[in-house]
From TrEMBL:
It comes from Candidatus Woesebacteria bacterium RIFCSPHIGHO2_02_FULL_39_13. It comes from the Bacteria. Pfam families: Y1_Tnp. Residues 11-152 form the Transposase IS200-like domain. One of its GO terms (molecular function) is transposase activity. One of its GO terms (biological process) is DNA transposition. InterPro entries: Transposase_17, Transposase_17_sf. This is Transposase IS200-like domain-containing protein. SUPFAM superfamilies: Transposase IS200-like.
Length: 223
């Protein structure tokens, strides 16, 4: 039976939940370096592009040149939230132009798979098929989705802010320049939604909320 969310509808200026996991549920992050490399690729793709000049030698002479830049999506993709787990990942993105996510995910996935296969001397696909994408059109869904993403590591780590996720940024403990949590935190500055008015801040919403966000998200799971 085909997995949900494989057939994707791409809409400009819209939010998407992107997720995927390792083939046969195998780990895609085996150690700290793996997590850091994936985050490095996200940073390079989402940061303001910078042209760097490098020195290189040719026949005993030193020249200055421009290093070939990786594909950059700073002007078209905004990362709202993320979580990296041992065998899967979640990204909450907003794309400006239609179908930019396709190019973005192709770039990130290809680069990381090449790194992973080279490091562990393996061949074949790293992920379980193509990534899944869910178009989000509801603010309450968007809010609960960030909670679902940030609670993902709770099963294996006691301090959520130490997970490989954007949660520390939401609590003001870190300032990642290529991440924008304000799309979500703004809901708590003028709580109009009933679900927000019950909580003082985002941390309370995530950690003291007895509501099962997965149920609200129609029992969102990895297929």
């Amino acid at each position: 039976m085909p997995s949900r969310n494989i057939l994707k509808i791409y809409v400009s200026d819209s939010y998407y939940h992107i997720y995927n996991r390792g083939v046969a549920k195998q780990k895609v992050f085996r150690d700290r370096q793996d997590y850091k490399v994936f985050l490095k690729y996200l940073k390079e793709a989402l940061s303001i592009p910078v042209i760097k000049k490098i020195d290189f030698n040719l026949q005993g002479r030193t020249f200055k040149g421009i290093k070939r830049p990786v594909k950059n999506f700073h002007h078209n993709i905004t990362l709202i939230a993320y979580c990296l787990m041992p065998n899967h990942f979640h990204l909450l993105l907003k794309q400006k132009s239609k179908e930019t996510i396709k190019s973005f995910m192709r770039s990130i996935s290809t680069r990381y798979a090449a790194y992973f296969n080279r490091k562990y001397d393996r061949i074949g696909p790293l992920y379980q098929g193509r990534y899944k994408a869910v178009l989000i059109t509801n603010d309450e869904y968007l809010l609960h989705l960030t909670r679902y993403i940030h609670l993902n590591p709770a099963e294996y780590i006691s301090v959520l802010t130490k997970a490989y996720s954007s949660y520390a940024d939401y609590l003001g403990l870190r300032n990642t320049l290529w991440l924008n949590p304000n799309f979500i935190l703004k809901f708590f500055k003028s709580p109009i939604m009933p679900v927000v008015s019950k909580f003082n801040d985002y941390k309370t919403f995530v950690e003291n909320n007895k509501t099962d966000s997965a149920t609200i998200l129609e029992k969102l799971t990895l297929d």
